[in-house]
Amino acid sequence: MGISFTVLSSGSTGNATVVRNEDTTLMIDAGLSAKRIDELMEQRELSGEELDGILVTHEHSDHIKGLGAVARKYDLPIYANEKTWEAINKSVGKIAEENRVVMDSGEVRDFGSLRVESFQISHDAAEPVGYCFYDGDEKLSVATDLGYMSDKVKQAISGSNVLVLEANHDIEMLRMGRYPWNTKRRILGDLGHLSNDAAGEAMSELLTGDLKRTYLAHLSRDHNQMDLAKMTVRAGMEDRGCFYKDSEFKLCDTYYDRPTPWDKVSEP
């Protein structure tokens, strides 16, 4: 079966992704209400009873809004590093002790035949992380909410077959937008969010023969558009001599209001 995944929702209004293989199904973040997460899973013919656990990237509300409710409803373990646990304790409510699991940053853990590795990212949170998933020769990486693409992050996600990567904002749209300057400065900073331009620069280094698709994620509804993000990322790659055909590599959409279709990492 290999690795399959669906991005249930992506953006500042809420984030959740499901990754599964033949014997394990995991959710990354639960940043919407439990009811809404159930609705999104149902659209992909998935039930909460099929989940084996929830991996947490960081404590911001658009990543943990429904975390406690979903974990209690389906009696699921929650995996997060110690600093993130400290940051989410008051938000998630009562969680059974056996379901409060510490997974250190940089730790590699096997969930059945699905191997998961966390890696640290740069964001204004306690100890934010991204995740890589492995099954045999397949690799899926999820890296959003990062202010910049560090060499360590590039190293962690290199060799991916499919990548979920942040392209949060168009820089000029953000600068001209309605946010106060201190918020704009935070988003543009090294602890903020990855711009379309920064995503294009990163992709020019990450695109190898292994990488088949990149899903552009966590787009701002106020300061970005999917077509603009894809155009800017592609232009940034081409400006650095990185050309490709759609038959060889694809930039794919994510949505804030509906899930992406199930995607098999093994598919060309």
From TrEMBL:
Residues 13-218 form the Metallo-beta-lactamase domain. It comes from the Bacteria. GO terms for molecular function: hydrolase activity. SMART domains: Lactamase_B. It catalyses: 3',5'-cyclic CMP + H2O = CMP + H(+); 3',5'-cyclic UMP + H2O = UMP + H(+). Keywords: Hydrolase. The keyword Hydrolase applies. The keyword Transferase does not apply. It holds the Pfam family Lactamase_B_2. Counteracts the endogenous Pycsar antiviral defense system. Phosphodiesterase that enables metal-dependent hydrolysis of host cyclic nucleotide Pycsar defense signals such as cCMP and cUMP. This is MBL fold metallo-hydrolase. The lineage of its organism: Bacteria, Bacillati, Bacillota, Bacilli, Bacillales.
